[in-house]
C-alpha cells in the first residue's frame, strides 16, 4: 500500500519529536542526577550534625527528581485518573503499597500520581528488581535507601534476610512512611504462564490480568515494620519503633494499575512520547494493617484474595472502561490527577541552573589548580 504524503509527514513528525524528547531526557539526567549527588556531598556535615534535616532535604531533592520523570509523561499527554479510596487521607501514616506489575511504565505512573499526595514521595521507599541498580537512576535510589531485590529461588532466602536488615537499618532512621512493592515478582507477560500452571496444580483461580503474588517480601515488611499491638506479631525491632515514636505500619494500600485495552506503557514510550495521549487508571483500596493476618498460611490466602480482586477489577475495567464502585457506593467516583506545568517548569529550570552552577564551580577549581 502506498504511503500518502500526510502519513509520511506524521511519521516524520513523530520521529523528530521522539528524537528531541530523547535529547531532552539525556540532558535532564546529565544535569539533575549529578546535581543531586553533589548537593548531598556538600551537605555531609549536616548529616553528622542533624541527620533528620539532612534526610528531609534529600527527600525534597528526591521528589523533584521523580517529578522530572513524571513531567516526561505528563508533557506527552500521559495522564492518570484515580479511583477507589482517597489515599491522601493516610499520606502521613506508614503504609505498604501493593501494586500489580505489567511494564516498566508502572513505576513512572506511580512517580506521577503520587506527586500530589503530600510528603509521600520524599518519604517513600521502593522495592525494585536489582537490574534497576544499573540504570541511570540506580545511584539515586541507592542514596535514597531503596532496596534492590534479586529474583529467583537461589537468592530468595538470602534476599529476605537482607531486606529485613535493610528495613531495620534505614526505614525509620530516614523517616520513611510508605514502602512500595510489586508482589508478583515480575512483569505480567513474563510470569503469567508460570502463575497459571501453579494455579492449576494447586486448585487456585485462573488469572489472566494479574499473576499470583509471592509472599516473602510482604511477610518480611509486616513482621519488621508493624508494631506489636497491631496484628499480634512482634515487630522486627521493638526498640526501633519506640525510639522513633512510630506507631508502626498502619495501612496496606492495594493499588491496581489499568491501561486502556490492556496495553501498558513502557519506559521507552514514556521517554519518547510516540504513543498517542493515554489515560492510565489507578484504583486504590485501603486496608487497616490490624485486619491483615500474621500467620503465613492466612497471610498467603489474604494476599491471593487481593490479587483475585484485582483480576475482577481489571476484567470489569477492560469490559466497561471504568472500575466498579466501592462497596456501599451506587456509582464509581473517579478523580483526575493533575500536575502544575508551572511547578514542573520551575523544577526543570532549577535542575539546569544547578547543572550550570556545578559546571562553573568545577571550571573555576580546574583553572585554579592547573
Automatic annotation (TrEMBL):
The chain crosses the membrane at residues 20-42, 54-75, 342-366. InterPro entries: Acyltransf_C (IPR032098), Plipid/glycerol_acylTrfase (IPR002123). Keywords: Acyltransferase, Lipid biosynthesis, Lipid metabolism, Membrane, Phospholipid biosynthesis, Phospholipid metabolism, Transferase, Transmembrane, Transmembrane helix. Pfam families: Acyltransf_C, Acyltransferase. SUPFAM superfamilies: Glycerol-3-phosphate (1)-acyltransferase. It comes from the Eukaryota. Signal peptide: none annotated. GO terms for molecular function: acyltransferase activity. GO terms for cellular component: endoplasmic reticulum. One of its GO terms (biological process) is phosphatidylinositol acyl-chain remodeling. Residues 95-219 form the Phospholipid/glycerol acyltransferase domain. PANTHER family: 1-ACYLGLYCEROL-3-PHOSPHATE ACYLTRANSFERASE-RELATED (PTHR10983), ACYL-COA:LYSOPHOSPHATIDYLGLYCEROL ACYLTRANSFERASE 1 (PTHR10983:SF2). Belongs to the 1-acyl-sn-glycerol-3-phosphate acyltransferase family. This is Acyl-CoA:lysophosphatidylglycerol acyltransferase 1.
